Amino acid sequence: MAPLEQDALAVREQLFHERVRECIICALLFASLYILCHFIITHFKKHTDFTAVHDDEDAAVNRIALGLCTFTLAVALGAVLLLPFSIISNEVLLSFPHNYYIQWLSGSLVHGLWNLVFLFSNLSLVFLMPFAYFFTESEGFAGSKKGIMARVYETSVVLLLLTLLVLGMVWVASAIVGNDAASRQSLYDLWEYYLPYLYSCISLFGVLLLLLCTPFGLSTMFTVTGKLLVKPLGKELLEDLDEQLSCTRFEEAAVSRRIRSGKASCWLNLDVELLQEQFFAIRSKRLKLELRHRASPWQRNLGYPLAMLGLLALTGISVLIVCFHVLELLLDDAAMPRGIQDASLGQVSFSIFGSFGAALQVVLIFYLMVSSVVGFYSSPLFTRLLPERRDTPLTKIIGNCVSLLVLSSALPVFSRTLGITRFDLLGDFGRFNWLGNFYIVFLYNMGFAGLTTLCLVKRVSWAVQAELIRAFGLHKLPLPVTCRRPLVKSC
Q: Is the pLDDT of residue 179 over 70?
């Protein structure tokens, strides 16, 4: 065999081994995420929906739908880890460029993960989750033989009709927006035009949802932190917590007896509603005192201040980065989010502060995702979707999986649009139509900075003011009352 042929064969073998290695790594990563998501969903699912005591067919259908939900949640978790994994991979290759044990970490692998997440996100949102919902609600066509296949046929027909309806709406919207010959020609291309355009609309909705949920979640996290952690006692160190707890328990028992006596007798003239409000207030005070009594000195004097300082620091850094990105948008067109087709890892750091800046970017991405999820479940519109341990029906699990997938798949675009990271969008994530619109990107950055700043001013400044007033004992001072006499005209 000629030397040139041997070199060509060696190159083909190397490419084959690299492709097999990437497939194995992707399969192992997805299998790990799938197993983790299976345990998460099992922790929240309602056990009676999957027992075969009443109907074996319904139990089997629910298990199939549960598998689809687990797949979707694994894709959502993969979308959350996608951008941090890419940033960390770039920094690792920069720090150890010639290390033998990290040669598997290549730009081809990262690019393939981005494409797989995009493909599975489309597949889950457009087909799997609607199929799971219609499959659980189906019973088979009238007159057909009962069974799982009858439900599959009915679900497939309903899903086909829904797909035609959605494609028709996208076709009409595309025809209205674009009137040129190129737009009309692209209307007949399903794979290259319809699905990217549809997912572009879904991503825009997800990014707007992140914009609304993240500041609300930050506000909720500031409030919840004070409830979960014990505040430093300050001047209350000299108080006797045992005596206060004993008095509060006696008050709670006394009010509880008065409520029971008022319900048992019709001769007592008691305001039961007022007593119930008083009882709940005393019980809340007792629970807070018990929490303070059980807390260690480290938790009292170190836990709450560090948690609040961490939230303040991360929120303030996020606002500063977004404000700096707004100035970049006004001065340089290169600050606009864009997509690339080649992931060139290990060449340059995506932060001016090096590895420390990259680690900070990863922390901020996770922080914004957590705050958006907290804000989503704390909002009045979606609070009913909050799952309950061992008591979440399957339809609610499907709704949670769809919501988390929309939020997580929009996270890379969200982070790049706000300038949290300089890592450009890979694959089809950079093909969204609205990413090149300066006004949408600029208004999005301004909206995030304004809402987050308002959250800081509203929650933090008022909370600090209340704590300072309480620390100095000014809340015990009587308020001055000024009586103004009405002016009387003299006759």
A: no
